[in-house]
Amino acid sequence: MATYPTQFRNIGFELDTPTTTGYRVVDGFGFTVKVEDARMYTLRVPCAVRTEQDAQAMNEALKAYERQNFRTIKNASYDGRMICIRYIGQEMLLNIEGTVGPLIDLCMETIRRFGAVPVCARCGRTGDLGMCGLHYSVEDICSHCFEKAKGDSVRRQREEDEKVENMPFGLLGAALGGLGGAVLWIVFSFMGKIVLAAGVVSVLAVYYGYKWLAKKVSYLGLGIALALGFVLLLTGMYFAMGIDIHRALNDAGIPLNFGEALGLMPDYIKENLGVVLFNNIFGVFSYIAGTVICVILHKNSKKVSGRAVRL
Known about the structure:
Layout: H1 4-10, E1 14-16, E2 21-26, E3 29-37, E4 40-48, H2 52-68, E5 73-78, E6 82-88, H3 96-114, E7 117-118, E8 129-134, E9 137-142, H4 143-162, H5 167-190, H6 197-214, H7 219-251, H8 258-263, H9 265-271, H10 273-304, E10 308-310
Antiparallel strand pairs: 1-2, 2-3, 3-4, 4-6, 4-7, 5-6, 8-9, 8-10
Protein backbone atom coordinates (compact mmCIF):
# COMPACT_ATOMS: atom_id res chain seq x y z
CA MET A 1 0.00 0.00 0.00
CA ALA A 2 1.39 3.42 -0.99
CA THR A 3 2.47 5.83 1.73
CA TYR A 4 0.58 9.09 2.11
CA PRO A 5 3.31 11.19 0.36
CA THR A 6 2.96 8.92 -2.67
CA GLN A 7 -0.84 9.11 -2.52
CA PHE A 8 -0.67 12.91 -2.39
CA ARG A 9 1.44 12.92 -5.55
CA ASN A 10 -0.98 10.50 -7.22
CA ILE A 11 -3.82 13.04 -6.86
CA GLY A 12 -1.77 16.01 -8.04
CA PHE A 13 -0.72 17.42 -4.65
CA GLU A 14 2.71 18.66 -3.65
CA LEU A 15 3.80 17.78 -0.10
CA ASP A 16 5.36 20.17 2.39
CA THR A 17 7.15 17.50 4.40
CA PRO A 18 7.98 19.44 7.63
CA THR A 19 4.32 20.33 8.18
CA THR A 20 2.86 17.10 6.65
CA THR A 21 0.65 19.30 4.47
CA GLY A 22 -0.32 18.60 0.87
CA TYR A 23 -1.23 21.57 -1.34
CA ARG A 24 -2.72 22.06 -4.78
CA VAL A 25 -4.36 24.86 -6.77
CA VAL A 26 -7.64 23.96 -8.49
CA ASP A 27 -9.15 26.58 -10.83
CA GLY A 28 -7.40 29.33 -8.87
CA PHE A 29 -8.45 28.02 -5.42
CA GLY A 30 -5.63 26.96 -3.08
CA PHE A 31 -6.41 23.66 -1.34
CA THR A 32 -4.35 22.41 1.61
CA VAL A 33 -4.66 19.02 3.30
CA LYS A 34 -2.97 18.86 6.70
CA VAL A 35 -2.28 15.35 8.01
CA GLU A 36 -3.00 15.69 11.74
CA ASP A 37 -2.27 12.11 12.82
CA ALA A 38 -2.61 8.53 11.64
CA ARG A 39 -6.40 8.80 11.42
CA MET A 40 -7.22 12.41 10.63
CA TYR A 41 -6.60 15.16 8.11
CA THR A 42 -8.05 18.65 7.65
CA LEU A 43 -8.84 20.11 4.24
CA ARG A 44 -9.00 23.91 3.88
CA VAL A 45 -9.67 26.28 0.99
CA PRO A 46 -9.98 30.08 1.38
CA CYS A 47 -12.82 31.71 -0.57
CA ALA A 48 -15.38 34.52 -0.26
CA VAL A 49 -19.01 34.97 -1.29
CA ARG A 50 -20.92 38.17 -2.05
CA THR A 51 -23.30 38.44 0.91
CA GLU A 52 -23.72 37.33 4.50
CA GLN A 53 -26.79 35.36 3.45
CA ASP A 54 -24.70 33.42 0.92
CA ALA A 55 -22.09 32.72 3.59
CA GLN A 56 -24.74 31.35 5.95
CA ALA A 57 -26.29 29.25 3.18
CA MET A 58 -22.88 27.83 2.23
CA ASN A 59 -22.18 26.94 5.85
CA GLU A 60 -25.57 25.23 6.15
CA ALA A 61 -24.91 23.21 2.98
CA LEU A 62 -21.60 21.99 4.40
CA LYS A 63 -23.19 21.21 7.77
CA ALA A 64 -25.82 19.15 5.99
CA TYR A 65 -23.02 17.16 4.32
CA GLU A 66 -21.40 16.68 7.74
CA ARG A 67 -24.64 15.29 9.19
CA GLN A 68 -25.06 12.92 6.26
CA ASN A 69 -21.49 11.59 6.65
CA PHE A 70 -21.12 11.82 10.42
CA ARG A 71 -19.06 8.64 10.67
CA THR A 72 -16.09 10.12 8.82
CA ILE A 73 -16.72 13.89 8.61
CA LYS A 74 -16.26 15.48 12.03
CA ASN A 75 -16.46 19.06 10.83
CA ALA A 76 -17.57 20.71 7.59
CA SER A 77 -18.06 24.44 7.79
CA TYR A 78 -17.55 27.88 6.23
CA ASP A 79 -16.65 30.86 8.43
CA GLY A 80 -16.91 33.61 5.83
CA ARG A 81 -13.35 33.17 4.55
CA MET A 82 -12.43 29.50 4.77
CA ILE A 83 -14.06 26.16 3.96
CA CYS A 84 -12.82 23.60 6.49
CA ILE A 85 -13.51 19.86 6.38
CA ARG A 86 -12.06 17.40 8.91
CA TYR A 87 -11.96 13.75 7.91
CA ILE A 88 -11.47 10.92 10.41
CA GLY A 89 -11.21 7.25 9.52
CA GLN A 90 -9.60 4.10 10.92
CA GLU A 91 -7.36 3.78 7.87
CA MET A 92 -7.05 7.42 6.83
CA LEU A 93 -3.42 7.22 5.73
CA LEU A 94 -4.24 4.23 3.55
CA ASN A 95 -7.15 6.04 1.92
CA ILE A 96 -6.07 9.63 1.20
CA GLU A 97 -6.10 8.92 -2.50
CA GLY A 98 -9.72 7.79 -2.34
CA THR A 99 -11.12 10.42 0.03
CA VAL A 100 -9.47 13.77 -0.77
CA GLY A 101 -10.68 13.83 -4.40
CA PRO A 102 -14.41 13.59 -3.55
CA LEU A 103 -14.00 16.30 -0.90
CA ILE A 104 -12.35 18.62 -3.43
CA ASP A 105 -15.23 17.93 -5.84
CA LEU A 106 -17.68 18.78 -3.04
CA CYS A 107 -15.87 22.04 -2.30
CA MET A 108 -15.71 23.08 -5.98
CA GLU A 109 -19.39 22.26 -6.46
CA THR A 110 -20.26 24.35 -3.38
CA ILE A 111 -17.99 27.18 -4.50
CA ARG A 112 -19.61 27.33 -7.97
CA ARG A 113 -23.09 27.06 -6.51
CA PHE A 114 -22.64 30.13 -4.34
CA GLY A 115 -20.37 32.07 -6.69
CA ALA A 116 -17.37 32.15 -4.35
CA VAL A 117 -14.02 33.60 -5.43
CA PRO A 118 -10.48 32.73 -4.22
CA VAL A 119 -9.12 35.04 -1.52
CA CYS A 120 -6.10 35.42 0.75
CA ALA A 121 -6.36 33.09 3.73
CA ARG A 122 -5.18 35.91 6.02
CA CYS A 123 -6.64 39.22 4.88
CA GLY A 124 -9.45 38.11 2.56
CA ARG A 125 -8.23 40.13 -0.43
CA THR A 126 -8.56 38.79 -3.98
CA GLY A 127 -5.79 38.59 -6.56
CA ASP A 128 -2.03 37.99 -6.53
CA LEU A 129 -2.33 34.78 -4.49
CA GLY A 130 0.21 32.01 -4.01
CA MET A 131 0.98 29.03 -1.81
CA CYS A 132 3.44 29.83 0.97
CA GLY A 133 5.14 27.88 3.73
CA LEU A 134 4.69 29.94 6.88
CA HIS A 135 6.23 28.77 10.13
CA TYR A 136 4.16 25.63 10.93
CA SER A 137 1.59 25.87 8.14
CA VAL A 138 0.96 26.15 4.40
CA GLU A 139 -1.41 28.92 3.29
CA ASP A 140 -2.69 30.51 0.08
CA ILE A 141 -2.00 34.21 0.69
CA CYS A 142 -1.50 37.49 -1.17
CA SER A 143 1.85 39.24 -1.73
CA HIS A 144 1.11 41.86 0.94
CA CYS A 145 0.53 39.22 3.63
CA PHE A 146 3.56 37.26 2.42
CA GLU A 147 5.86 40.27 2.80
CA LYS A 148 4.43 40.90 6.26
CA ALA A 149 4.99 37.22 7.13
CA LYS A 150 8.61 37.50 5.92
CA GLY A 151 9.16 40.45 8.25
CA ASP A 152 7.63 38.51 11.13
CA SER A 153 9.84 35.55 10.18
CA VAL A 154 13.02 37.61 10.36
CA ARG A 155 11.98 39.02 13.73
CA ARG A 156 11.05 35.59 15.08
CA GLN A 157 14.32 34.07 13.89
CA ARG A 158 16.32 36.91 15.43
CA GLU A 159 14.54 36.38 18.76
CA GLU A 160 15.23 32.64 18.54
CA ASP A 161 18.92 33.21 17.78
CA GLU A 162 19.22 35.56 20.77
CA LYS A 163 17.85 32.96 23.17
CA VAL A 164 20.34 31.15 25.38
CA GLU A 165 19.73 27.57 26.42
CA ASN A 166 19.30 27.30 30.17
CA MET A 167 20.24 23.66 30.58
CA PRO A 168 19.96 23.44 34.41
CA PHE A 169 16.40 24.80 34.37
CA GLY A 170 15.63 22.66 31.33
CA LEU A 171 16.76 19.53 33.15
CA LEU A 172 14.57 20.56 36.07
CA GLY A 173 11.61 20.70 33.68
CA ALA A 174 12.64 17.34 32.20
CA ALA A 175 12.86 15.84 35.70
CA LEU A 176 9.36 17.08 36.52
CA GLY A 177 8.06 15.57 33.29
CA GLY A 178 9.95 12.33 33.94
CA LEU A 179 8.58 12.09 37.47
CA GLY A 180 5.09 12.51 36.05
CA GLY A 181 5.75 9.63 33.65
CA ALA A 182 7.12 7.45 36.46
CA VAL A 183 4.07 8.14 38.63
CA LEU A 184 1.82 7.34 35.66
CA TRP A 185 3.54 3.97 35.23
CA ILE A 186 3.18 3.22 38.97
CA VAL A 187 -0.52 4.09 38.89
CA PHE A 188 -1.18 1.87 35.86
CA SER A 189 0.84 -0.94 37.44
CA PHE A 190 -1.14 -0.60 40.69
CA MET A 191 -4.32 -0.95 38.61
CA GLY A 192 -2.91 -4.11 37.06
CA LYS A 193 -2.64 -2.66 33.56
CA ILE A 194 0.21 -2.41 31.05
CA VAL A 195 -0.36 0.68 28.91
CA LEU A 196 1.93 1.16 25.92
CA ALA A 197 1.14 4.88 25.80
CA ALA A 198 2.70 5.42 29.25
CA GLY A 199 6.26 5.42 27.85
CA VAL A 200 5.34 7.79 25.00
CA VAL A 201 3.52 10.14 27.38
CA SER A 202 6.55 10.07 29.69
CA VAL A 203 9.04 11.01 27.00
CA LEU A 204 6.80 13.77 25.62
CA ALA A 205 6.46 15.18 29.14
CA VAL A 206 10.26 15.16 29.43
CA TYR A 207 10.68 16.87 26.05
CA TYR A 208 8.16 19.64 26.63
CA GLY A 209 9.27 20.09 30.25
CA TYR A 210 12.82 20.68 29.05
CA LYS A 211 11.69 22.96 26.23
CA TRP A 212 9.48 24.98 28.58
CA LEU A 213 12.20 25.86 31.10
CA ALA A 214 15.33 25.75 28.91
CA LYS A 215 13.76 28.22 26.42
CA LYS A 216 16.05 26.86 23.69
CA VAL A 217 16.75 23.20 22.89
CA SER A 218 20.06 21.82 21.64
CA TYR A 219 20.59 18.21 20.65
CA LEU A 220 22.98 17.81 23.60
CA GLY A 221 20.46 19.14 26.09
CA LEU A 222 17.70 17.06 24.53
CA GLY A 223 19.82 13.91 24.74
CA ILE A 224 20.64 14.48 28.43
CA ALA A 225 16.99 15.23 29.20
CA LEU A 226 15.75 12.08 27.46
CA ALA A 227 18.37 9.97 29.26
CA LEU A 228 17.26 11.48 32.58
CA GLY A 229 13.64 10.73 31.75
CA PHE A 230 14.53 7.12 30.93
CA VAL A 231 16.28 6.69 34.29
CA LEU A 232 13.22 8.12 36.05
CA LEU A 233 10.93 5.76 34.14
CA LEU A 234 13.09 2.78 35.16
CA THR A 235 12.90 4.06 38.75
CA GLY A 236 9.11 4.16 38.46
CA MET A 237 9.13 0.59 37.18
CA TYR A 238 11.33 -0.47 40.13
CA PHE A 239 8.98 1.12 42.65
CA ALA A 240 5.96 -0.36 40.89
CA MET A 241 7.44 -3.85 41.29
CA GLY A 242 8.21 -3.07 44.92
CA ILE A 243 4.57 -2.15 45.49
CA ASP A 244 3.48 -5.43 43.87
CA ILE A 245 5.83 -7.45 46.12
CA HIS A 246 4.69 -5.56 49.21
CA ARG A 247 1.03 -6.27 48.44
CA ALA A 248 1.69 -9.93 47.61
CA LEU A 249 3.62 -10.56 50.83
CA ASN A 250 1.02 -8.85 52.99
CA ASP A 251 -1.77 -10.80 51.28
CA ALA A 252 0.19 -13.96 52.11
CA GLY A 253 0.31 -12.98 55.78
CA ILE A 254 3.96 -11.83 55.82
CA PRO A 255 3.93 -8.37 57.43
CA LEU A 256 6.69 -6.29 55.84
CA ASN A 257 6.84 -2.54 55.40
CA PHE A 258 7.50 -1.04 51.97
CA GLY A 259 11.19 -0.42 52.65
CA GLU A 260 11.72 -4.07 53.56
CA ALA A 261 9.85 -5.13 50.42
CA LEU A 262 12.18 -2.95 48.31
CA GLY A 263 15.12 -4.66 49.98
CA LEU A 264 13.94 -7.96 48.50
CA MET A 265 13.87 -6.54 44.99
CA PRO A 266 17.42 -7.54 43.84
CA ASP A 267 16.82 -11.19 44.73
CA TYR A 268 13.34 -11.10 43.19
CA ILE A 269 14.71 -9.71 39.92
CA LYS A 270 17.43 -12.39 39.74
CA GLU A 271 14.95 -15.20 40.35
CA ASN A 272 12.22 -13.84 38.06
CA LEU A 273 14.17 -12.04 35.37
CA GLY A 274 11.96 -13.27 32.54
CA VAL A 275 8.77 -12.07 34.22
CA VAL A 276 10.35 -8.70 35.10
CA LEU A 277 11.50 -8.16 31.52
CA PHE A 278 8.12 -9.14 30.09
CA ASN A 279 6.22 -6.81 32.43
CA ASN A 280 8.42 -3.80 31.67
CA ILE A 281 9.69 -4.27 28.13
CA PHE A 282 6.61 -2.59 26.68
CA GLY A 283 7.30 0.56 28.66
CA VAL A 284 10.91 0.58 27.47
CA PHE A 285 9.91 0.13 23.83
CA SER A 286 7.23 2.80 24.05
CA TYR A 287 9.76 5.21 25.61
CA ILE A 288 12.15 4.50 22.73
CA ALA A 289 9.32 5.12 20.26
CA GLY A 290 8.52 8.39 22.04
CA THR A 291 12.20 9.37 21.84
CA VAL A 292 12.14 8.93 18.07
CA ILE A 293 8.98 11.07 17.92
CA CYS A 294 10.65 13.81 19.99
CA VAL A 295 13.76 13.87 17.81
CA ILE A 296 11.56 14.18 14.71
CA LEU A 297 9.50 16.95 16.33
CA HIS A 298 12.66 18.84 17.26
CA LYS A 299 14.20 18.38 13.82
CA ASN A 300 11.03 19.57 12.07
CA SER A 301 10.64 22.53 14.42
CA LYS A 302 14.12 23.70 13.47
CA LYS A 303 13.24 23.40 9.78
CA VAL A 304 10.05 25.49 9.93
CA SER A 305 10.83 27.88 12.79
CA GLY A 306 10.66 31.41 11.39
CA ARG A 307 9.97 30.11 7.88
CA ALA A 308 8.31 32.24 5.18
CA VAL A 309 8.84 30.88 1.66
CA ARG A 310 6.96 30.73 -1.60
CA LEU A 311 6.17 27.14 -2.54
